[in-house]
Amino acid sequence: MPEIDSDHPNPCYPKACAIQSCLTSNSFNQSKCEHLIDDLYRCCAQFYKQRGTDAEADSCPIPSVVERRIKKMEAEGKGGDGGTFLETRRKS
After folding, report:
1. What is the pLDDT of residues 14-61, one digit of tens each?
2. Inside any domain, residue 4
3. Mean pLDDT of 73-90
4. Number of domains in the chain
5. 48 within some domain
6. Contact 47, 57 (CB under 8 A)
7. For residue 87, is it within any domain?
8. How would you class 29 by CB atoms within 10 Å of its CB: exposed for 0-12, middle for 13-18, buried for 19 or more?
9. Helices 34-51, 63-75: crossing angle, 10 deg rounding
């Protein structure tokens, strides 16, 4: 996955907006928007890799939730983000 905008305070926000638009146009049928939800989790994983697990963004769940979802995606063959980020150092 390409690097996210390191200057943006909430770089995954557009992905969250895409999910909301998809849900609205599909009568809130989550299965039709799963690919966008996966994209958000990939973005959030990248966000935590770049900024550390202490970072916060309104669009991203807490790091442990993102980590769990990425592992599930990898197990399902959807690909993840290419590794773990919870083992990275926390930013001071």
Report:
1. 999 999 999 999 999 999 999 999 999 999 999 999 999 999 999 999
2. no
3. 65
4. 1
5. yes
6. yes
7. no
8. exposed
9. 130
